[in-house]
C-alpha cells in the first residue's frame, strides 16, 4: 500500500506530513515507557523482520497481490508507541534506499501504514484480550482479528486522504469499494502472518510479548483453612534474549535474501486499484529512482536472484541498524529520566 509521489496533492501531503511528524514525536515519548529490559532488545529486530516480510508479496486475487503492513504485529510484540516507530523506520528505509513509496508521500504512508494500522489494531487487540479468557491462545486469536481489521482500516484511511487531496478526478465511491474490497483479502494474509508470529513468540517467551504481559497468574499460597495469601516475588534478573534475537535475525535474513525471490510479482492492492481506476494518471517518478538499491535490486548485479537477495539482506541490515539506533537512544533517555527522578526516603 505504499503511496507513490503524485497521487496526493501538495497541501494534503504537507498536512499528513505534519500529522506523521506529530505522531512520531508523541511515540518517541511514549516508547520510553515501553522500551524496558524486555522490549528494547527486540524493537530493532521487529522493524527488520517487518521489512523482510514486506518483501514477500502473496497472491490474493486474479492479478493482485498483498504484503504485510506490520502495524498490528509491531504493536502487539513491543507496544503501540514503539510499533509506530518500527513501521516508520521501515517506511523510511524503503523510501530512501529502495524507491518504494514516494518521498513527498512519506507523511501519507506513515500516517496510513504506521499510525492507522497500529492504533486500530492495538485498540481492538486490547478489547479482545479483556473479553477473552486469560490464555496464550487468546493472545493469538486477538492478534489475528486485530491484524485482519487493521488492513481494510488503512485502506479506508487512504480513501479519505485521497478524497481530500487526490490528483485525479475519480469517483470516491469506486475508490473506496475497490480499496476496501481487495484489502479485506489482504487482511486475511496479514492476520495469518501476525497470528503465527505472535503465537510462536508467546509459546517460547510470553514475557517478551508486550500484549501478553500480565498473562501469568500471580503466585499464591493456599492455607489449611482455605484462605489464599498472595506471595510477593522480588523481580528476578531478566532472562537473556540473545537466542530469540539471533533466531529472528536469521529468519529475517532468510526471508529477505532467499524466500523473497519466490514472492508474487503481481501488483499489490493499491497498485492494482490505481491502475484500474486511473488514480495513477499523475504518478511521478521516484526521487530515488537512481538509487543503487532501487526496486529491491542491487545495481550492476546481473543475476536477478542474487541481486534481489543481496538487496533484501542489505535492507534487513540497514533497518536493523537504524531501528536499533533509534531505540537505544530512546531507551537511554528513559534511563536518564529514571535516574534523575527524586527518591523518597522513609523515616
UniProtKB/TrEMBL annotation:
Protein name per Swiss-Prot or TrEMBL: Energy-coupling factor ABC transporter permease
Ranges where the PDGLE domain occurs: 242-332
Subcellular location: Cell membrane
Membrane topology reported for the UniProt record: Multi-pass membrane protein
Endoplasmic reticulum in keyword set: no
TM spans (from-to): 12-32, 38-56, 68-93, 105-129, 141-164, 176-204, 244-263, 309-330
Entry keywords, A to Z: Cell membrane, Membrane, Transmembrane, Transmembrane helix, Transport
A Pfam family the protein falls into: CbiM
Amino acid at each position: 500500500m505504499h503511496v507513490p509521489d503524485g497521487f496526493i496533492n501538495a497541501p494534503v501531503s504537507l498536512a499528513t506530513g505534519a500529522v506523521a511528524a506529530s505522531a512520531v514525536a508523541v511515540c518517541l515519548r511514549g516508547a520510553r515507557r515501553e522500551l524496558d529490559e524486555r522490549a528494547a532488545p527486540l524493537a530493532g529486530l521487529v522493524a527488520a523482520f517487518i521489512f523482510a516480510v514486506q518483501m514477500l508479496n502473496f497472491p490474493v486475487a486474479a492479478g493482485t497481490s498483498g504484503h504485510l503492513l506490520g502495524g498490528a504485529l509491531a504493536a502487539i510484540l513491543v507496544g503501540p508507541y514503539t510499533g509506530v516507530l518500527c513501521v516508520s523506520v521501515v517506511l523510511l528505509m524503503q523510501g530512501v534506499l529502495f524507491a518504494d513509496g514516494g518521498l513527498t508521500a512519506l507523511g501519507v504512508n506513515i500516517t496510513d501504514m504506521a499510525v492507522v494500522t497500529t492504533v486500530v489494531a492495538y485498540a481492538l487487540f486490547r478489547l479482545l484480550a479483556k473479553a477473552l479468557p486469560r490464555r496464550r491462545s487468546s493472545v493469538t486469536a486477538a492478534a489475528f482479528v486485530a491484524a485482519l481489521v487493521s488492513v481494510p482500516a488503512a485502506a479506508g484511511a487512504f480513501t479519505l486522504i485521497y478524497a481530500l487531496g487526490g490528483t485525479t478526478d475519480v469517483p470516491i465511491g469506486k475508490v473506496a469499494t475497490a480499496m476496501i474490497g481487495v484489502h479485506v483479502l489482504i487482511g486475511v494474509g496479514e492476520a495469518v502472518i501476525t497470528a503465527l508470529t505472535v503465537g510462536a513468540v508467546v509459546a517460547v517467551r510470553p514475557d517478551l510479548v508486550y500484549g501478553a504481559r500480565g498473562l501469568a497468574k500471580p503466585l499464591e499460597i493456599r492455607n489449611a483453612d482455605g484462605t489464599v495469601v498472595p506471595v510477593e516475588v522480588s523481580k528476578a534478573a531478566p532472562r537473556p534474549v540473545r537466542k530469540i534475537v539471533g533466531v529472528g535475525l536469521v529468519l529475517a535474513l532468510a526471508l529477505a535474501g532467499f524466500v523473497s525471490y519466490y514472492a508474487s510479482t503481481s501488483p499489490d492492492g493499491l497498485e492494482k486499484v490505481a491502475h484500474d481506476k486511473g488514480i495513477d494518471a499523475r504518478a511521478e517518478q521516484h526521487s530515488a529512482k537512481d538509487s543503487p538499491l532501487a526496486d529491491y535490486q542491487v545495481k550492476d548485479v546481473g543475476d536477478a536472484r542474487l541481486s534481489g537477495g543481496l538487496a533484501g539482506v542489505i535492507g534487513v541490515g540497514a533497518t536493523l541498524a537504524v531501528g536499533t539506533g533509534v531505540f537505544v537512544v530512546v531507551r537511554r533517555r528513559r534511563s536518564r529520566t529514571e535516574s534523575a527522578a527524586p527518591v523518597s526516603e522513609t523515616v
